Amino acid sequence: MVMSWIFTALVGASLLAALTLGNGSALAAAVPEGAAAGVTLALSIAGSVCLWSGVGKLMEKAGFTKALSRLLHPAVCFIFPEAKEDSVLESALCGNICANILGLGNAATPMGIRAARRLHKNDTAGDSLCRLIVLNTASLQLIPTNLAAIRVSLGCSTPFDILPAVWLTGSCSVAVGLTAAFLLGRLWKT
Amino acid sequence: MTDYIVPLLLFLVCAVALGKRENSYDILLSGAGDGLKLMVKLTPTLILLLTAVTMLRASGAVELAADFLSPVFSFFGIPPETALLVLIRPISGSAALAVGAELMTRYGVDSQIGRTAAVMLGSTETTFYTVSIYFGALGIRRTRYTLPAALLADLTGFLMAALTTRLLFS
Question: Residue A173 is nearest to which of B31, B123, B134, comparing CB atoms?
């Protein structure tokens, strides 16, 4: 529903701006041009998206997720104290975080929901649940493959040169989100 | 050196899977099939949103909005050209991808704006969508401080994306 409003607003705004600025012919030309650009973009990234989707699935089957889970154990227990006593919860949390790090969006959400159900008590969100959701709204992805596919399709020869910037930015964002959640959890009692 | 990361990763994943007696080729195939399903879902969004954004650009509305917003964005050190991306990123992932791709096409994929857009896309998530999926699945109404904390993380991401791009690439 939100996207319906946004789409209508975008089209309305361009109509209004074109009328005021007299850009009518450019606006008319932009309609088929934009639609064609959508198909071009989709086609040019499809190969990479499919390949990386395959690699992602293979990483999961080859045990990369399990190995990463072991590394994350201390951090997970620190952020979610409940995980110390609940091994099912712990594995769901680790699975969710690992899938996010490896960029396996399809696998991350079901495991995240499973963890959330175990943390869930009543109709109010508890502190650990809030932290889990904040963590999932921040990006932990190590290698943003779809983004790299777009950059390559637009003629970039070094699609991964932004990785240091992405990692630095992502870590800061996660750190701020979690710190804010910890602090607000102290102040904002149920 | 960085040239070898991707091919090496590809080889490593296949080799490890093979070492564990997994049928790596079949798994790759089925994963690639999943990717195709993702593309089937993603393509209509890309078409619609690129139409809207190209219209917005051609009409002159983007420049108008950028002029209008530039005091606020310049204050935070974020290029005002990325305004639409910043606004749409927490709402829809595929829409943000379309808006980001248009920015990279328009200003150049290796330009300051193009890189900032890429870092923004790579280091933030679809906040509102994620929050609604989790709370929707659990039927929770009192979400307390989740959204403010998540949006603060997004804001940090946008600020840091502009900052790191400026520091690392100019």
Answer: B123
Q: How many domains does chain A have?
A: 1
Q: Do B105 and A154 touch (CB under 8 A)?
A: yes
| Residue A18 maps to a domain | no
| Contacting residues for B91 by C-beta, under 8 A, at least 6 apart | A2, A3, A6, B126, B128, B129
User: Tens of pLDDT along A7-45?
Assistant: 999 999 999 999 999 999 999 999 999 999 999 999 989
CA B21 to chain centre: 36
CA distances B104 to B96, B97, B120, B122, B143, Å, are 12, 10, 12, 14, 36
Residue of chain B nearest A140, judged by CA positions: B123
> Within a 13 Å sphere around the CA of B5, how many CA atoms are in the beta-carbon half?
11
Q: Determine the residue among A102, A119, A156, A169 to mutate to test chain B binding: the one whose Cβ has the most chain B Cβ atoms within 10 Å.
A: A169
Question: Facing residues of A124 across strands?
Answer: B142
Residue ranges making up the domain that contains A46? 30-187
Please indicate, yes or no, if residue A178 is contained in any of the structural domains: yes
B22/A61 Cβ within 8 A: yes
Cβ neighbours of A70 (radius 10 Å):
10
Six-digit token string for B167: 């520091």
ipTM of predicted assembly, 2 dp: 0.88
Across the interface, of A49, A156, A173, the residue whose CB is closest to B153 is A173
pLDDT (average), residues A145-162: 91
B165 touching chain A per CB within 8 A: yes
Which chain A residue's Cα is nearest to B130? Answer: A137
Q: CB B58 to CB A29 under 8 A?
A: yes
User: How far apart, in Å, are the Cα atoms of B110 and each of A45, A155, B53, B158?
Assistant: 18, 9, 20, 18
pLDDT band at residue B1 using 50, 70 and 90 as cut-offs: low
Which sequence spans correspond to the domains of chain B? 42-169
For B37, nearest residue in chain A (alpha carbons)? A50
For residues B130 and B85, what is the distance between their CA atoms, to the nearest angstrom? Answer: 18
The reply to whether A97 falls in a domain is yes
- Report the SS3 class of residue B114: helix
Confidence of residue A190 (pLDDT cuts 50, 70, 90): low
Phi, psi of B140 (to 5 degrees): -90, 135
